[in-house]
Structures are given as C-alpha cells and as structure tokens.
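Box 3.1. Reading complex inputs
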Amino acid sequence: MRNRLVTLTTVTVIAAAGVLLTTTAGTAQAPAYRAPRAADGKPNLNGIWQALNTANWDIEAHAAGPSVVRELGASAAVPAGLGVVEGGEIPYRPEALAKKKENYTNRLKLDPEIKCYLPGVPRSTYMPFPFQIIQSQQHIMMVHEFAGAVRTIYMENHVEAPADSWMGWSNGRWEGETLVVDTKGFNDLSWFDRAGNHHSEALHVIERFTARSPETLMYEVTIEDPKVFTRPWKMSMPLYRRVERNAQIMEFRCVEFVEDLIYGHLRKQPSK
Amino acid sequence: MNHRFRVPARVLATLTLIVVLVSIPVAGQAPSTASRTNGTAAKPYTPSRTPDGQPDLQGFWTNSTYTPLERPKDVTKEYYTPEEAAAAIKLVAERENEQTEPGTTADVHYDFSQFGLDRSQSTFTQSLRTSLIVDPPEGRIPSMTAEGEKRVADRAAARKALGGQYDSVQNMPIGSRCIVMAGAGPPMMNAGYNANYQIVQAAGYVMILTEMIHDVRIIPLDGRPQPPPGVRQWTGVSRGRWEGQTLVVETTNFNGKNPFRGASENMRVTERFTRTAEDTILYKFTIDDPSTWAKPWSAEMPMARTQGPIFEFACHETNYGIANILAGARADEKRAAEAAAKTGSK
C-alpha cells in the first residue's frame, strides 16, 4: 500500500515535471503567473505602478556621477545603474551616436524633462513618478503623474496615427497574459533619459506589459527607428505596484516650476 | 435630432423638459428647433452597466454650450421659447464671428470660423434654460459675503502690486500659461472650443480626460478620506460614490491659486453625473463655500455624446504665444524709452 502510494506520487511528480519542462521549452517566456481577471475576463492590470531603477538617468549601464547643477550637490547626483538595455549597448548609427554625446554635454539646456515637456514613450513609464492604468474593454488609459502626461491605448478600431504627438498614438491588443501596445506617430522631441539618448519621428515602440506577481509587472520594450539605430533593440524592467493605503496620482503641474527658467529673460526689468 | 431626457424625479419633483442636442455638420445646416413637452410619461432612461457593474458613463462627451452660467440681466424667465433660444444662440455666434473680420487684431490671433474652433461648427448642447445656474432661481451667483468681497479685493490688490499683466509670465492668465483651464474644473465649465471629454471606467475608478491641456481626473470610488488639509492642489482632490444611477463627486483641498468665481481655497464642489439618455449625461454641480456665499449655489448642463478621438493637447510645449506676448511687451517698452529719450534730447 505504502509502496504503491510512493510509486504513484513519484510518477505524478515526474509527469508534472515533464509537463512543466515541455511548457518551458515550448514557449520561451511561459507565463509563470496568471493575473487575476478584470470583469471582462482580461488580465487585470489596473493599479498604480512605478519603475524602481535608474533608467530615467541613463538607460545604459552607468556609474554614479555628479549633479549637472553644481549647487545641488549630492541631492541631484546621478545614482548608478546596471542599465535596462538588453545586450548592454544601444546600436546607434555613427551620426546618431555623435548627437547623443552632444545631447549629453548640453543636457542642462536640452533635456525636455527640465522644461516640463511631455516625456514621450517609453520614458513616461520609467520616470521616478507613478502612473495609473485604468483598463476598460475599448480604451486602456495610462495616466502619468509627471506633467499629467496621458496615453489612450485603443484596444479596438485600430488606425494609423492621425498626427504626430509627444506621447504617440497607441494601438493595443491582448496576447494571452500580455498587453501589447504598438505606438507610432511620435515627434522627434522627446528623449529616452537624462543622458541624451534620443530618437527620430520614425520611432516605433512595441511594449509588452505582463503581470509577474500580484504586485509586479514585467515591462518589455522594443525600439525601432531606422534613422537612428542600426537594428531594433530592447529594454526590460519590472514595474512595482504602489501598495500604500490610498495611493493616488497627485498633481505634478510642473509648468509653474519652469516658467522663470523658460520665460524669465522676458520679465520686465525694474526701471533704473 | 431631438433627444428626450428626464430630470430625476427625486431631485426636481415636477420639472421635466426636453433638451435638444444640436449637432451641426460642417456644411452648416440650421439647428433643429428646440421644443419643450411634458415628459412625465417618458420612461426614465436606465444606463447599461460596465462589466464591473457601474452605470456606464464611458465615451466621448462635450459640454460646449451657448447657455451662459448667469442669466443675462435683461432676461427674467427661467426658460426661453424655442424661438428665443435660437435667437440668443444666433446673437452669440455672430459676435464670435466678428473677430474673423479681416484686418482686426483678433483676426490675426485665431480665425475661429476658418479653423472650426467656434462652437457652432461642432457638437454643442442646447437647452431652453436661460442660465446654467438653477439655484438661486434668479439664475445668478448670489451676492458675496463681506469676507468674500474683502478676499476678492485683496487678491486684486496683490495682483496689482505684481505689476502689469505683461510684466512677467506669472502675471498672465493661468490658462494662457497652460497650467489649468476652466474645462478641467471642478466644476467642469464650458470651454469656448475643444470642450471635449473622455470618460473611462475601471473597477473602483472613474477617469475623466479633459481635452484642453490633457487634464485628467482620476476619481476613486472606494470611500477613502480626503487627504489632510495641508495637501492642496490646483484642481483639488476628488472622491466619488454611486447614488443609484448617479455618480456623485465631492472635491475639496483646492490650493486657491485659481479661484472659481472668487471662491476661497476651502470651497467644496459636489458634482452629479447622470446618464439620462444614450447620448446625454446631465451634469450638475453645487458650490459650497460659506466664507464667500452665505448659501450654496447650483448649476446644471447637459453633456452630449460626441465623436472621438481626443487628440493630444500639448499646450505648454508649444506655448509660443506667451513668449511672443512678453517679448512684444518688452519691445514696446524699448521703443517707448527710445522715443522718450529722443524727445528729451531735443
């Protein structure tokens, strides 16, 4: 009796392992986790999410560095990071790499984040601010705290981008556990980070959002832009749920904070 | 296109009316005539439900209207006849088109009719009401308390102390600075153009996107408390709940930097959204600010279903206008100073 039970258990374990192995081998990214379902039966990605890395400073691997504004000392120094670019390096065309370096040198003047401009995609996702996913069948909204940036992901009636914009035109679809968002129609004005990594208006972003636990998503991005890069390349990172009680997207209307910076030189000077 | 809706009986026991939503194609057909009937026999509309069971407010909406917040001084009744309503719209529409007269300063700024920005060229809502304000019955904002009047005077004095409107960006209107515009509210007032909204609902939340400056309200429905009084925002902090078919949203914690009609930062806005027809939401709001008005006052307006999508309104990113206005003012000053120096040297 006991022997038989042991045998049975062993067989079961082996069989289960076999299934597991087959599944893993069959699909490279077999979902290890099945998200709870929204009322419409789709994976429920609703929530307030935030990246917890240093991609907004530099998506490539980088050591810690000083602040671009000397007076801010350690408070605005650059925290180190191992990078979020798969394969380590961004495959720039030579002239585009030169522009990246120029951007970096002049970042205090040129970084659109400093001017409170809409951050573009995918930068909006990994800025050090939360964003909220509001998911319906027809539209999935991504509402970002930074500059109140907002994206509408059209889940039905996909069309080409009718006009260029900062946040692009996003068509979405479900692939099993994964929300796939295909975004085009960008202008060439946003950056990927504070290090001056850039793109042209030919940018094509394909994002994959997959729940990997109740409190984390996996975020994978493919970047295509033949004018700037020699081949498509990828970034990936986890996103974390803001679990504190009553977490909410707060106002960050940064226009007010940059007006003196942008228009200060046009202020009336006191008469002498 | 006449669409009937019934004012919830619980709120206004007897009053029912028909609101006409006029949508004028670019070709410019005359608006269909408004009419008023006794709608008591009409069955109240029951909105469909979202998958998680909320009454469904989703879609694209506009609150564009020719009805003024306050009743014009020469009007004494609550409702126009359909003919009077049409005449009132015509008058305002003509005034709007005046600025397209060639050679006028306004014409240089925005040619409203050419670019389809004036209200008559897209969907707008129309009711026979002579004012959006329904309470007090005179249709006008009640007179202010002494404290309210003093605050308004103090604010005006503080503005004056900062210098002229074109002296610095901070002296310019908040909307021109792309910080916040009236459409975002609350209360969500009627923008002169692009008065469009998108509503998306998910379990526990209602999201309202305002086209102007891509302003988003995320309204939680879980009964959470307001944040402490020290946390104040331009558009306050909103909390919502469903009362039957009606979404009720309470907003407090304003920062007082964009006061609504002279209100204090302690204003409480209560909004009510009720889907009264397939293509209509009745939007009501009540302003409660005892330090400014002795009694709360209320207004209501329909929101009409409109066509999406809503495009990105990147206001600040290309705010050439504000830089050019300030630069123009500095150039004027320079010219005036040079002219004065010339006169002085003669």
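In summary: The mean pLDDT of chain A is 91.
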